[in-house]
Amino acid sequence: MVLTKRRANNHKEIFFVVAALVPGLLFYGIYNLYGILMTFQFSTLDWTGISQDSRFVGFANYLKLFKDPMMGVAVKNNLILMITSIVIQLPFALLLALALNSAIKGTRFFRTIFFLPMLFSTVATGIMWQLFFDPMFGILAYVMNAVGLGQYVIGFLADVRTAMPAVLFVICWQFIPFYMIIIKAGLTNISIELYEAATIDGANRWQSFWKITLPLISPTLRTAAVMSMVGSLKYFDLVYIMTGGGPSGATELMATYMYKKGFVEFGMGYASAIAGLMFIICFVFACGFLYITRVREAH
Amino acid sequence: MKRLLIFACVLLVSTAMLFAAGSSEAEAKNEKDITLTVWHIGVDVSRRETMEKAIARYQAANPKVKVVEQAIENDPYKTKLKTAMGGGNPPDLFITWGGGWMEEFIKAGKVLDISEQVKSVAQNYLEPGISISMSGDKVYGLPITCGPSSVYYNRELYEKYNLKVPTTLAEFEYNCDVLEANGIIPIALGNASKWPGAITFIYLSMRYGGAQVFIDAFNRENGKTFEDESFIKAGEKIQEWVRKGYYPEGMNGINYDTGGSRMLFYSSRAAHLIQTNGLLGNCRNEAPDFYENNLGLFKFPVIEGAAGSADEIVGGGNVIHIYSGTKYPKEAFDLLVVLSDQVYGQDMIDGSSMISGVKGIEIKDPLIQKQYDVLMGAKVMQNFYDQYMPPALAEVHKDTTQALFGLTMTPAQAAKLVEAKAVEVLGPAK
């Protein structure tokens, strides 16, 4: 009697779990999994993207991809972006989050101010910074002229030496607030008693940061790092708006190159191969990173 | 488990029904009234109004047909149309720029061949307009804008420094030198999107070698290639001008679309602007005073002793097409004609200062008249190389030209890259 009741309950529970999962899975399946599978299918075709005709070419697109020098440039730029994201964005975000978490007056005000860049639409952000870097009418050129650095004014987004740093700067400007909020949430979860206990035991602030704060927000940092890593590997919008991958490929990313091949040059098969490779790279990086940090946690 | 399956099935079926219900409803509507969709890129107020007026005229005459019009920004339009064509849900009427981009859609069998139907109206259109609508000897659309690129100049600055309108490149360079010496930027250029600078490259290469060189190189015949000396010389001239300071600092980072180079021109900080026919309309809207008092234009100067003539012009425009899979080809063609007819053309001139490609337009504005005369006097109107060539090759042409302006590539290197891509896309030269 008891047993059957429990079983019935079990059934009900499973029923509920499935009912809750199906809608999400349906959408995820149609718009994500199906899309990924189709991408891999398209990547084996010689296809313009508009025609009904396409030709199966096997791995030819991937072979072409490995010989394409521009793809190498794009991968390199993506790696640069990834490293700056993790090395610059996360520490800065952590600093800002710590500042906001402290008892300084006006943290609410600054929280809003710091978060503003994240609220702007990326297109508006891109155009705004494009105007900022404009060598003729831009604020940067104006300031440089005012302080006597006028001879160094160049087309910042047009010069192969400065385009990438300029774009990286804007990407950091846009994304630091995002990670700041995530880390801030992690900090709020740390109970105050821990710090109080540490103070009683004679720990200074530096020690409590290293021994309490950092270990306790490391899961948050780990999530943030994965997000920023995958995000920077598939990054597209600001670069597309500000430089379009130029000049001469100086800011070309895998995603902007994919767009160019697929939508500008009518090579949907080849673009799908780029997308496929991007998927594999992101997947490997994310899994690898999660695996490595998981081992550390166990220790 | 069974319940679970049943539940999943019910969910699936009900979702499917939801979608099915949606589509059958739409079909039922279509049977009663004909709906035609039009996609175009006239997003600014005046061009859109012209389009809407033409559609209203058509609807008044054909009350049974419902026309749904959508204006889409230039670059997103290209992506959107491609996706719609590939995804099987394209508009009935759409625009292209002629040339290689249009050719891709023709090759994919997406554009209706209207060679037969067009015979009854073809005589109403200007020759250059019809020519950009053609592929081989077949007509695939009708022109809705069509005009030459010119050198626009600031008349006030010319008067101030006592300059004469140049007809040769040497005279033009003299003017530029004088302007440069007086602290005026000789030529405004916003080359972030690459095509604005390409116009100068195309004109120079045509003036050096004549219009036929490019055509031969493109057709891979008569021993011409993209490494012909006219292309090299054009690159050398551009780099000479860059080094002499003819262009604004960082022009490859200035965005034409957001108005960077036009601002330099309107504010008299720069004296010339080498641009498409679209500039007249832009200028009239953005800087009406400047348009009234300062704006002048002349044909791109010739090079003494070189093969090109002043009557070979670079130009282009928009063509409106019918999707080959449209359910109502007859209605679509009637609409196509109305969207490019004389009334439309007149509206276009009056509202946007743009020549549309139809005959019998009354032009009151002397600047447009001049533009029109250039167009009509032209022996050859070469479509922009980047419109004319297949997109993959066009990209290399634009990238290398931008690199020429940026001094990061030599003219010989640039020509070599274009030729290498041409061999890949078009085949070896004969």
The ordered string of helix (H) and strand (E) elements of chain A is: HEEHHHHHHHHHHH
User: Main sheet of chain B, how many strands, which sense, barrel?
Assistant: 6 strands, mixed
Distance between the termini of chain B: 71 Å
Distance between the termini of chain A: 46 Å
Judging from the principal axes of the Cα atoms, what is the shape of chain B? Answer: globular
CATH architecture descriptor of chain A: Orthogonal Bundle
Using the 3D structure, state the CATH architecture of the largest domain in chain B.
3-Layer(aba) Sandwich
Transmembrane segments (chain A): 14-37, 79-100, 112-133, 139-158, 165-187, 268-292
Protein name (chain A): Sugar ABC transporter permease
Main location (chain A): membrane
Family (chain A): Belongs to the binding-protein-dependent transport system permease family.
Would you mind describing this structure in some detail?
The complex is a heterodimer of chains A (299) and B (430). Chain A is mostly helical. Chain A has one domain (62-298): MetI-like (MetI-like fold, Orthogonal Bundle). Chain A is 76% helix and 1% strand. Chain A has helices at residues 2-42, 60-67, 69-101, 107-119, 122-133, 139-146, 163-188, 192-200, 205-233, 237-242, 254-264, 268-298, and strands at residues 45-46, 55-56. In chain A, strands 1-2 form a two-stranded antiparallel sheet. In chain A, strand 1 (45-46) and strand 2 form a beta hairpin. In chain A, helix 2 packs across helix 12 (268-298), helix 3 (69-101) packs antiparallel against helix 4 and helix 3 (69-101) packs parallel to helix 7. The two termini of chain A are 46 Å apart. The model of chain A has no long low-confidence stretch (mean pLDDT 88). Chain B is of the alpha/beta class. Chain B is built from 19 helices and 12 strands. Chain B has helices at residues 2-32, 45-61, 74-87, 99-107, 127-132, 155-160, 169-181, 195-209, 211-219, 229-243, 260-266, 278-286, 288-293, 329-338, 342-352, 366-377, 385-388, 391-405, 411-426, and strands spanning 34-40, 65-71, 93-96, 134-135, 138-139, 141-148, 150-154, 185-188, 270-275, 295-298, 312-322, 380-383. Chain B is globular, with a radius of gyration of 24 Å. Residues 17-31 of chain B have low confidence and may be disordered. The chains are: A mainly alpha (299), B alpha/beta (430). The interface between A and B is large, with 43 and 45 residues.
